[in-house]
Each structure stands twice: as structure tokens, then as C-alpha cells.
Amino acid sequence: MLFRKYILAVLTLITSVMARTITTNTIDRGAISLGLGDTIIEDGVYWSIIDNLATAFAGNVDVGSGSGLYISGLNPLLSMSVTLLSGSLTNDGIISLNAVQSLLAPTYSLVGISFTNNGEMYLGADGSFGSPNIQITAPIWNNNGLLVFYQKTRSSASIELGTSGLDIKNNGQICFFNELYTQRTNIVGTGCITLDENSSIFLSNTLLNIDTNQVFYLADSASSIQVHAISFSKTYNVAGFGNGNKIGLDVTLVNLPPLLNGYTYDTKTGILTLRGGGVLSPMNFNIGLGYNPSLFKIVTDDNTGIIRIPAGAVTYSGPPPNSVPSVCQPCKKLPPAPGTSATEFTTTATSTNSDGFTCTEVDDIIVSTDKSNSWFTSTSTITAGCISNPTNTITST
Ligand SMILES: *[C@@H]1O[C@H](CO)[C@@H](O)[C@H](O)[C@H]1NC(C)=O
């Protein structure tokens, strides 16, 4: 008896650490349990998880090619959390974490041992109340696809990518909408980081290496870059500078013309140089050729979350005079997730009763949410009835 109980316990343990493999399109609404094993979504199918308060992945997460993992919080009063503890996250399809409809700030804490995105990945929040906690901090970090961080309203929260002091490798496209990203790692690779719609990047640890092939693209007139000034010169690759967006340092520019200029632009090399004075070296930004030197101006970057440095930035009032490198791919906002809107449909069930009659029941099914935002399914029968089956009648004669 005791032995059987023991066997049962072991079996239960084995089942709970077994992989959860999604092989057909699946929609789960309300609370679900993920277990302790890996999560595998086979090629070409999706798993849409809706209004599950805490989605905690304990093992590896593997989203196949042409597949989707959608985790959505539709309940406005639900503070959604998605966490990856110790596994590897590999995405060859679409991953979309969407709490844009919820007023409460979500937590997306994807830690794990490695992160590889070859597909499209979206992390969305509302941002108007509280601070969304959004981080992908695996020590092995590779983006080869599209990685989008979206907030409806900019908050003072900052996106964290990679493990402090280690590398993030971006050979793909990273996009920010209404976000602040604070760099704390080396940035390696030849990809593009686009600051779209009111987004900023703060390069906070510039003693680390930031690949001069990485492009920082200021796509919006309200976007900005702020760079920590240090005692040796560095060059950053910037596209899209113009229309009033800003490039600055975390110190006030020392501007005492004609002796010292807070900035200079070299029309032959396309390098914009900002000077912070003292022991700080000038910082160089490769903005490209064609700028009109009379359209630059020293300003203050007031973007939310950025350290406000009086007269610490430079702006350009004209449009960017050169084209954006082709490595910068279009940014996209969050895709719709399957099963997130209320639906109504009919089902038809056919059976044969004990008298050999064919019975047909047509049901109306409604999947929707109630007043407390909980999902329910209601079934009402439209028609039901049995008729004698002519084929059966003939064979039995
Ligand atoms: C940028 O975001 C801040 C904070 O949400 C907001 O106050 C500001 O108006 C936004 N700027 C633009 C140009 O949208």
C-alpha cells in the first residue's frame, strides 16, 4: 500500500516535469497551471493564454517556426506577470506578451540562461499607472529577429536587456515605442536599435563596448539618446538625427565660444562631437553627411526617465539629410492574439439513439466575459430532434 503510494508520487512528479508540448492551436482562458517542465510549441501552431495572472515558465521555452505564443491580459484590473526562471528561451515564431489593455503595470521578467530570438517578439504594456517591470536578462543574449517593446504611454520605467557587464548581441532589429532603455551591457553585433514614438536610450555604462557597427536610429521627433560622458573618446553610430530629436551627454555641454564649442559638426566626416569639459573627453556621433551647420542648437532633454541635464543635448531643426541604413528594418506594433475577443458560434452534433434514429442538436455557444471580467462559456440549444434514418430502415427490412 505504502509502496503503491510511493510509485504514484514518483509518477506524479515525472508527469509534472514532463514537457508541455502544444501540437494543435490552443486557446486557454483564465487561470492555468504550467507545471515544471519545458514548454514546446510545435511548428505552425499557436498557444494563446488569456487572463492568466502569473505565467511562470520553469523549464525551457521553445516556440517553433510559424508558431505563436500569445500571453494576453485583457482584464483591466489584472497585473499580468510572465516569468522565465532558469531555462532557455528560443523563438522562431511569434511571442507576444500583451498587457496593453490593463491599467496595472505588468511584470515581464525573462531571466533564464539564454535568450535567442530569430522570429518576432513583442512586449507590451499600458504605462500610465505604476512602472512596468520589463527585462530580458539572460547572460547569453541573441536577437536576430524583430524585438519590440511597446508602451501606450511613456513611464519612467526603464527596459533592462542582458546581464550587467556581459554582452547583448543584436544582429536584428530592436524597436522601442514610448520606452526608455538603459544600457548596462556591451552591445555587440551589426543590428539596429530604433527609438520610435517618444523613446530614449541612455547609454549609462560607456566604459563597456558598444559596437560602432550597431545603428541607433532616432525614428521620431521626440526620441533621444543620452550618453554617459567618460574620460576617453568614443564614437556612436546614429541614424535619423533631425526634426528636433536630441543627442546629449549626462553633463552640461561646455559652450564658451569662440574658445570652446559645446558641439562641432565635421561636414567632411559627418561626425557630430559633443564636449562635456573638464577631464571628460569629447564624444563623437557618426550622424552622416549633409547636415547644415546653422541648424544645430544646444537644448535640454526633458524626456521622461532621462536624467535632466540643463543644456546637455543638441538638436537639429531640419529633416535628416541622409537615408537610414538598410540594416534598420520596419518596426511593428503588437499583433492581435487569437481568442481575445468575445465570440459567438453554433455547433451541430449528430448522434444515433437507441431506437436507431438520427438525432441532431444545434447549439449556440457564446464565449465572453462577465461583469467581473471573468471568462464564461454559455451554451443554449437552438434546435434538437430525432428523425428516423431512411438508410437504417432499408437495411433492417
Ligand atoms: C512623451 O511622453 C511623455 C510622458 O508620457 C509625455 O508627457 C509627452 O507629451 C510625450 N511627448 C510626445 C511628443 O508625445
UniProtKB/TrEMBL annotation:
<dbReference type="GO" id="GO:0009277">
    <property type="term" value="C:fungal-type cell wall"/>
</dbReference>
<feature type="domain" description="Hyphally-regulated cell wall protein N-terminal">
    <location>
        <begin position="11"/>
        <end position="338"/>
    </location>
</feature>
<dbReference type="InterPro" id="IPR021031">
    <property type="entry name" value="Hyphal-reg_cell_wall_N"/>
</dbReference>
<feature type="signal peptide">
    <location>
        <begin position="1"/>
        <end position="19"/>
    </location>
</feature>
<dbReference type="Pfam" id="PF11765">
    <property type="entry name" value="Hyphal_reg_CWP"/>
</dbReference>
<keyword id="KW-0964">Secreted</keyword>
<protein>
    <submittedName>
        <fullName>Hyphally regulated cell wall protein</fullName>
    </submittedName>
</protein>
<keyword id="KW-0732">Signal</keyword>
<keyword id="KW-0325">Glycoprotein</keyword>
<keyword id="KW-0134">Cell wall</keyword>
